[in-house]
Amino acid sequence: MNTLTAEIHQARIEHLVVTDDSLTVELADGRTVSVPLAWYPRLLHGSIKERNRWRLIGKGEGVHWPDLDEDISVQNLLLGQSSGESQSSFKRWLDRKAQTRQSKLSREKSPSKSLHRRRQKARQR
User: Fold this and answer.
1) For the chain, where are the E strands, in sequence order?
2) How far is CA 12 from CA 2, 54, 89, 108, in A?
């Protein structure tokens, strides 16, 4: 195993920050790696809340965003590798995300059945 390979396998994420245009990762050894957010379309299309909800996986070998179903390894960051997701897979994910958002908005706009029943009873009194 050469030195670069050993450094990559030993690298661990301590913290990260996602902005509108970049993903910046702080490593345990003091290095900071910053990559364009466009490399990771799910992050790019995620809300601030979704981007900020992450957890380290594998003792800092990677990071997971549960709301976006995205995993990124420190190895890929150090090697400069962007997302390997196909366009068709990403499109399906975007479509599901849009449907979920639409369903949520519909539920928020229409009162629940129990609230509707309580209002009807109140009117009858």
Assistant:
1) 13-18, 22-27, 32-36, 55-57, 62-65, 70-73
2) 18, 15, 29, 41
Residue-wise pLDDT tens digits, 95-118: 998 988 888 777 777 655 556 666
| H/E element, 124 | helix 113-124
Q: Are 72 and 79 in contact (CB under 8 A)?
A: no
Burial of 45 (0-12, 13-18, 19+ CB in 10 A): middle
Whether the pTM exceeds 0.85: the reply is no
